[in-house]
Design goal:
6 strands, Archaeosine Trna-guanine Transglycosylase, Chain: A, domain 4, single chain, six-stranded mixed β-sheet, globular, alpha+beta
Length: 148
């Protein structure tokens, strides 16, 4: 059996709350994210919150012009058009990560706990692949039962 890939992404806390409520099921990025459908996503809520608190599964990754992304996914992105345009200003092609099975990580892991276990841990600015034998993986997975 092939194990699902695991990645860690950082998201502003207000968007994490929208993901948890189900009003945001697509994450936008300024550059293409090269991951496969089925990739398991650990979602870090940026400081001042500073917690890994959600998990999700990549349903699909779409790279296209900002105009096309907005027309296809505006209902799932969870931001205003002005926020969307400001974030992707100057980008010819942006990326939308369509997420499914979004759920709260119980308990959420705070930055201090992660750093005590993995001294060199820094939340990713773009994303980070998590190796199943790596220190971040061991800290995040802990007693969690993962979907394979």
């Amino acid at each position: 059996m092939i194990e699902a890939e695991n990645i860690l992404i950082s998201v502003e806390h207000r968007y994490v709350l929208k993901m948890l409520s189900g009003t945001k099921t697509a994450e936008i990025r300024r550059r293409q994210l090269r991951v496969q459908p089925g990739t398991y996503v650990w979602i870090y809520s940026k400081l001042p919150r500073g917690h890994v608190e959600l998990t999700a599964v990549v349903d699909k990754v779409v790279t296209a012009s900002p105009r096309k992304l907005w027309s296809l996914y505006q209902e799932r992105i969870g931001v205003s058009r002005a926020e969307f345009e400001s974030y992707l200003k100057g980008v010819e092609a942006g990326c939308v990560i369509l997420l499914r099975d979004i759920s709260a990580l119980q308990p959420a892991l705070d930055l201090g706990t992660i750093r005590r276990a993995t001294r060199d841990f820094h939340p990713p600015q773009f994303f980070k692949r998590l190796g199943v034998r790596g220190p971040e993986w061991k800290t995040l997975a802990g007693p969690q039962v993962l979907r394979q």
